[in-house]
Amino acid sequence: MRVRAISLLILCVVGLLPGSAYGIGLWFNGDWLGYPPSYNPLSSAGHCFFNDFNVGPSGWVVEEVWGHFALKPGYPVATSASWEIRSGMSGGGGGTLVASGQGLLTRTPVGWDAWYYEVNRIALTGLSVNLAPGSYWVGIGMYVPGQVTCLYRTTGANAIGTPAGNNGNTYERLYNNYSLRNYDHSMGVNGRDLTEPIPEPASLALLGLGLAVLVLGAAVRGRTS
Fold first, then answer.
1. Is residue 177 part of a domain?
2. What angle do CA 12, 24, 188 make, to 5 degrees?
3. Is 13 contained in some domain?
4. Could you tell me the end-to-end alpha-carbon distance of the chain, in angstroms, rounded to an integer?
5. Is residue 81 in some structural domain?
6. Distance of CA 178 to CAs 12, 139, 146, 173, 175, Å?
7. Other Cβ atoms within 10 Å of 198 Cβ, number
8. What is the pLDDT along the chain (225 residues), one digit of tens a residue?
9. Is 209 inside a domain boundary?
10. How many distinct structural domains can be found in the chain?
11. How far apart are CA 137 and CA 173, in angstroms?
12. Which residues contact 175 (CB under 8 A, 6 or more apart)?
């Protein structure tokens, strides 16, 4: 009976250890649209659409950027992509490059649109970008010759954070020229909001170990008394 009680307590203490606090949805511009005109093609290397998002008062750590892209079945598929986070964008100018990178992408099919294009969630993970409170723009570049690659638009359904949906503050970069567009895209940013402190796993583990030792000692004394 004592063994069962000790086992139950240890399981409860282990349950206090935190799961991953990273990768939560910080901003999502809204669900992808599956009817015309619902997407914009990426027609060349460097062609990119930048959608704006606002970072909360305590700052964020961005660990993943992603978007919903249309891919034509049977054509070459990208295995890598580039990403950029910018600030201070304006008509004709790209503002300030805050962070950027290129790497292997994670592709997750999520459905089909009205043109029978495959809808894919394209994500770049493993980032660690600290952002102070303010407004930023995120863009993902994924051009593959011979493939029809399009970024889906959104109206803001099921959005997270601000601004959500079509606020007319998207910039298109084509051949190093930046132009303001009046539509937004289904994109998101995941990571960590610095508002919430993260419990230290080492401290919780030591607490759990101490409680387990105390219970075990009490059980041994009970047997010898």
1. yes
2. 165
3. no
4. 17
5. yes
6. 55, 12, 25, 5, 9
7. 11
8. 444 444 433 334 333 333 333 469 999 999 999 876 688 888 888 899 999 999 999 999 999 999 999 988 888 888 899 999 999 998 778 999 999 999 999 999 999 988 888 999 999 999 999 999 999 999 999 887 777 789 999 999 999 999 988 898 999 999 889 999 999 999 999 999 998 665 555 544 554 555 555 555 555 455 555
9. no
10. 1
11. 12
12. 44, 46
Q: Which two tokens stand for residue 20?
A: 């991953």
Distance of CA 125 to the CA centre of its chain: 8
Angle between helices 201-224 and 2-16 (to 10 degrees): 170
Please give the residue range of the domain that contains residue 139.
Answer: 24-193
